[in-house]
């Protein structure tokens, strides 16, 4: 995980590098970011839990009661987007 050039200057000489795990971590995080950004993750396989329309309405109402209108709007938009993705007409 010691990728930054500064680390080479401050790493004690008695330390040994066994692997470049920082490269693996950075690659995994970059892939995760890309998939979230392009909307391919999370998909249906990673979202097995469903919320009923009544529960979603209750949730949105509670957010609005708490004065969290932006959060309610964002949640509603996300729910609508999920409904659109999972609709059989779009398969």
TrEMBL record:
<dbReference type="InterPro" id="IPR015813">
    <property type="entry name" value="Pyrv/PenolPyrv_kinase-like_dom"/>
</dbReference>
<dbReference type="Pfam" id="PF02548">
    <property type="entry name" value="Pantoate_transf"/>
</dbReference>
<dbReference type="InterPro" id="IPR003700">
    <property type="entry name" value="Pantoate_hydroxy_MeTrfase"/>
</dbReference>
<dbReference type="GO" id="GO:0003864">
    <property type="term" value="F:3-methyl-2-oxobutanoate hydroxymethyltransferase activity"/>
</dbReference>
<keyword id="KW-0808">Transferase</keyword>
<comment type="similarity">
    <text>Belongs to the PanB family.</text>
</comment>
<comment type="pathway">
    <text>Cofactor biosynthesis; (R)-pantothenate biosynthesis; (R)-pantoate from 3-methyl-2-oxobutanoate: step 1/2.</text>
</comment>
<dbReference type="GO" id="GO:0015940">
    <property type="term" value="P:pantothenate biosynthetic process"/>
</dbReference>
<dbReference type="InterPro" id="IPR040442">
    <property type="entry name" value="Pyrv_kinase-like_dom_sf"/>
</dbReference>
<dbReference type="GO" id="GO:0000287">
    <property type="term" value="F:magnesium ion binding"/>
</dbReference>
<dbReference type="GO" id="GO:0005739">
    <property type="term" value="C:mitochondrion"/>
</dbReference>
<protein>
    <recommendedName>
        <fullName>3-methyl-2-oxobutanoate hydroxymethyltransferase</fullName>
        <ecNumber>2.1.2.11</ecNumber>
    </recommendedName>
</protein>
